[in-house]
Amino acid sequence: MDRIKQYRQIIQELFTASQIMPLSDYLREEAILSKFRHLSEHRQKQLEEYLDFLLQKDQTTPVN
């Protein structure tokens, strides 16, 4: 759960300090993190691995 707290703190700092992120985006991300927190530790790990896979795929797939 430490990682989730770190992500939440980073998001809050970005939103509060610089207003870079629109409030709607912040609220959406906060809702996603809330769902993530309710998953078991095993499911959180699976989801994190899947997100890493998707990010890697996006970085290696050319955009048409």
**C-alpha-based Rg, rounded:** 14 Å
Strand content: under 5%
Could you give the count of β-strands?
0
Give the distance, in angstroms, between the N- and C-terminal Cα atoms: 38 Å
Tell me the major beta sheet.
none
- Which class best fits the helix and strand makeup? mainly alpha
Label the overall shape: flat
Low-pLDDT ranges: none
Order of helices and strands: HHH
Mean pLDDT: 84
The total count of helices amounts to: 3
Helix content: over 70%
Task: Using brief descriptors, characterize the structure shown.
64 residues, mainly alpha, 81% helix
Describe this structure in words.
The chain has 64 residues and is mostly helical. The model has no long low-confidence stretch (mean pLDDT 84). It contains three helices and no strands. Helix 1 packs antiparallel against helix 2. Helix content is 81%, strand content 0%. It starts with a helix and ends with a helix.
What's the short version?
The chain is mostly helical and 64 residues long.
Describe the SSE topology.
Layout: H1 2-18, H2 23-37, H3 41-60
Helix pairs in contact: 1-2
